[in-house]
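As promised in the previous annual report, we have extended the structural survey to additional targets. Below is the entry for TRAP transporter substrate-binding protein.
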Amino acid sequence: MNRSLGATLIAVAVALSAAPASAQTVVRVANWLPPQHPLFAQIIVPWTEQVEAATEGRVDMQILDAPLGPPPAHFDFAVNGVADVTFGVHNYSPGRFTATKLGEMAFLCEKSAYLSPAWWRIHQQYFADLNEHRGTKLLGIWTHGPGQLWTRNRDVTSLDAIKGAKIRIGGGFAQDVSQALELTPIQAPVTKAYEILSGGVADGIQFPAESVTAFKVDEVLTQGLIVPGGLYTASMFLVMNQAKWDSLSAEDQAAIESVSGEALAKLAGKVWDEADDKAFEKIEAAGKITLVTPDDAEMTAIKAALKPYEEKVLADITAKGVNGQEAYDALVAEIAKVKAGD
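The corresponding structure token record, generated without further manual editing, is:
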């Protein structure tokens, strides 16, 4: 073999061996959370690793090093292709999502591990055709654990006692809860929670247990109203830019779906519950926060106060063309199925 032909064959072999690497599809994943936060570290990061494994390396998930902007902007980042994949909280985009408020309602479930898979199933069954996530491919929906009311030097043993309390609130159904309980809402970024509580700007905050310790407000809180099933939850999403999704092969789309959807909801539920359990253990060990469970009379009063707001959520969903009461009843039934191991 002459030398030039041998060199040519070697060059071709090298090029062919490099072909799989060059055929990789890079998917840019945005993040707005601290790297140690459970939502990012234990849900999003493992999911990206599962995608790479499921696609046998054909899809390269690249998590961006710095936040692209504030959390509420992340759904639009996916729609507009600023990032390929984003995650966030539905109620960060008021007015955009109506149906997702169903998964945020009070008293639904004591564990995200039950609610999250049930919520994914019901969303796909009842609400997928509403196309509220248009411009993206919806890859996952789940919720955090039960949201509760926490205060600093403010009694939570009765509705009369907490009436008028200045509370830092979230969006979605959490806002409805604040109106129903006649609280005075304080709008502030969650990152300012410690500052506004320690400085007396707010009397309390709405949080799942995990966030109480994650944002270190357990150091300044004195009471927690722990309502069975929670006063609210927050519905969350994971989406991919639609054009990016359409550019993937059918094989890779199927591989990604195999680790998304209900599988992702189950992972998220497990992570949130473990984080909540650890938070409660820390809170109880420290002994600084008195945990109050409403008695029967107070539960009756709380439910009565929230009922008109729950009815409005269902009416708003019905106005979108889906029977709200039917969807709610189906969600409750689906939660029971998940609890039973179905």
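Residues 1-22 have pLDDT under 50 and may be disordered. The CA atoms of residues 141 and 237 lie 5 Å apart. These points will be discussed at the next consortium meeting with the crystallography subgroup.
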